[in-house]
Model the fold of this input.
Amino acid sequence: MGDNKEKTMPKYIKFLFGGSAGMAGTLFVQPLDLLKNRMQLAATQKERATSFQVLKKIIANEGIFALYTGLSAGLLRQATYTTTRLGVYSWLFETFSEEGKPPSFIVKAGLGMMAGVCGAFVGTPAEVSLIRMTADGRLPAAERRNYKNVFDALFRITKEEGVLTLWRGAIPTMGRAMVVNAAQLATYSQAKQILMNTGFFHDGIFLHFCSSMISGLVTTAASMPVDIAKTRIQNMKTINGKPEYSGAIDVLVKIVKNEGPFALWKGFTPYYFRLGPHTVLTFIFLEQMNAAYNKIVLGKKGSGGQL
Done:
């Protein structure tokens, strides 16, 4: 019993590796997150533009470094949300595996949803800060919030709007997380298994890359409507004591009515090219951390990751 425990990766290491992998991925994709948020908040015909046009406008008006606006919030989101969701998923995956046999696809989806809800609740304050910081540049100077960093955002939101505002949009955030994690984590595991079974793939970075891109595409298509509702709720302002939206359903109904049903997938390109590569990078970093830990600490060979 004691020897077996010594050869198992501790749960806190899974949480640490999950968050670190997510943060490392964010360093590469933060500009795409900003681009996605700006496009999702464009409610008028005048604001609508292609990804390239929005990108060009941001660089021209705010400078190239503006693409990394909200990076501190993005990193904190990964440190909270990703640490929790991947840590919980890895632990549940191990718990529901029997004698080395992985759980079924349906069970994986359920585990992904449970992990996603836990992570989303913990990560909502950072998510609210991120949405507001990335959205600031599209507003006239007089209307900007001008948060200095994520900690300034958290402090000012609490002071000016109350601590519960940090969890504004928590329900659609958790709903989005259920969709994202059921799709992302389950399809990643499933794609990896299917590709391995073809005999053309061996455990390594190329397998992780292909599995991640398949996972990212499915996740993007499934989660965008919930994501745009979350984004607009977390960025909304209260005018004369009345919030712009009463909830996620109200957002979706107004978008379909005023902007058309395809507006629910507004920003699909930057969303996928943010989510796809971030999925790839996160899982690659995570698998490499797992492999290094197993080799150096546990003396095992191979990936050894539960994902």
Residues 1-5, 303-307 have pLDDT under 50 and may be disordered. The longest strand covers residues 238-239. The two ends are 24 Å apart (CA to CA).
